[in-house]
Amino acid sequence: MCVKQVRNHKDKIRTWEKMKNNLKAGFLPTSYVQDSYSQLHNLTQVNMSVDEYAREFEKLLIECDIQ
Questions:
Q1: Is the separation of the CB atoms in 16 and 43 below 8 Å?
Q2: Cβ-contact 65, 44 below 8 angstroms
């Protein structure tokens, strides 16, 4: 990624936010956030323990970038 930045005469990545955005754009499918929102919306406890459900809920909140 660093070599690509230099080759394209772009500024260095100096913030964590810019690094996250570049990694997301390069490695995640375009439907990733929408899929995560859908999973969060349809999340049910069914065969999970409360701890498992809470972990999955928190994971999806992070994926959706929800505070």
A1: no
A2: no
